[in-house]
Task: inverse folding
């Protein structure tokens, strides 16, 4: 079992969360195959120890020490499984780096994941919050996944339709948190590119870069350039991407707000209107503001940052202050995107 399982007691999680918040886990187990994962699960079930699953730690706030066994699935591997005409089914292990995987699919001549370039995190974590950017989300391209069901201890295959995907949400995040440990994810991609430029910024960036032939590679390059210009690199400045979801409000409330705030950035939905939380936070005066070691990013107000030496409690206090002032100014409730451990 040795090579497939690394077990650390009182493990420092600082470098396992992209916010770089200091905290310790009672135990950390890194497993690199299914047998090792099942072995760990059998022992924790026997000891009735709480379990948390760690991906790339890029959607996580550590509010304090974690009195649990933290399991990090590090199953690796990526492969083309089958081809039917232009449709190609690919699979990646949960431990693969998300961005590296998207770039590998593009190098294989496949289209589908280019808009999701440069999102931090692991393949196994990608369905949990239904990662999305620039007009595409996992729910659009995922075929199915393999997981261990902790209720039964059995391996299960779940089709995308069974994952209850919603905006930054899934079965794994809200309906049955902790029940499934994702080990492999499959995506249905295409050799015939479907170019998605509907998200305003991409089209502008493609024009700015002077790209004439819009290939998946070109779209990925545009997405990478936009992300690098707005979003801090977590290896240089602690952050967890967007800290809040973009709120959806009733049409009547959006209309009222637009009368009072003509610059309101909004997107009509099937039901209600989605507001740009970054705009609300900026208008409430928070963009670029620091509160000790934490702050609101100066190029994208939806991103909270940790410059080092701070704590999860300080970050959550800042989040609460931002939320209170947006509620006060606009009457809109912001919902947090990352999950919180350790409180
Ligand atoms: N805006 C401001 N000020 C700001 C930030 C945004 O006025 O400080 C306004 C701008 O008008 C801008 C609009 O808000 O045009 C939307 O901003 P942006 O394109 O940066 O996207 P977002 O809605 O803030 C969402 C996702 C991001 C994703 C981008 C691109 C959520 C919570 N966030 O951000 O996802 O990369 O769209 O698709 O849905 C993440 O979830 O961690 C994440 C980074």
Result:
């Amino acid at each position: 079992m040795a090579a497939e399982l690394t077990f650390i007691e009182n493990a420092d999680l600082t470098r396992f969360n992209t916010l770089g918040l200091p905290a310790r886990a009672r135990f950390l187990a890194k497993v690199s195959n299914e047998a090792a994962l099942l072995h760990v699960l059998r022992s924790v079930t026997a000891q009735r120890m709480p379990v948390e699953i760690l991906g790339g730690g890029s959607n996580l706030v550590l509010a304090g020490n974690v009195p649990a066994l933290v399991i990090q699935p590090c199953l690796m591997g990526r492969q083309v499984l089958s081809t039917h005409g232009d449709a190609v089914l690919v699979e990646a292990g949960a431990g693969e780096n998300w961005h590296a995987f998207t770039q590998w699919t593009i190098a294989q001549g496949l289209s589908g994941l280019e808009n999701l370039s440069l999102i931090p995190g692991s393949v196994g974590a990608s369905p949990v919050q239904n990662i999305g950017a620039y007009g595409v989300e996992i729910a659009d391209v995922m075929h199915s996944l393999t997981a261990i069901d902790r209720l039964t201890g059995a391996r299960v295959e779940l089709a995308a339709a069974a994952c209850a995907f919603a905006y930054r949400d899934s079965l794994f995040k809200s309906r049955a948190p902790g029940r499934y440990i994702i080990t492999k994810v499959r995506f249905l991609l295409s050799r015939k590119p479907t170019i998605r430029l509907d998200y305003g910024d991409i089209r502008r960036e493609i024009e700015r870069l002077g790209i004439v032939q819009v290939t998946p590679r070109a779209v990925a390059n545009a997405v990478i350039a936009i992300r690098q210009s707005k979003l801090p690199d977590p290896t240089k400045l602690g952050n967890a991407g967007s800290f809040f979801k973009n709120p959806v409000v009733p049409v009547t409330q959006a209309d009222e707000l637009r009368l009072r705030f003509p610059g309101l950035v909004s997107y009509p939905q099937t039901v209600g209107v989605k507001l740009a939380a970054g705009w609300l936070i900026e208008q409430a005066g928070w963009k670029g503001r620091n509160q000790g070691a934490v702050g609101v990013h100066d190029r994208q107000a939806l991103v909270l940052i940790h410059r080092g030496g701070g704590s999860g409690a300080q970050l959550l206090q800042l989040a609460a202050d931002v939320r209170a002032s947006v509620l006060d100014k606009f009457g809109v409730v912001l919902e947090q995107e990352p999950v919180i451990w350790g409180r």
The pocket of EPU is lined by residues 133-134, 199, 201, 230, 241-242, 245-246, 265, 276, 278-279, 282, 287, 300-302, 337 (CB under 6 Å). The chain has a mean pLDDT of 96. The first helix runs from residue 34 to 47. The first strand starts at residue 5 and ends at 12.
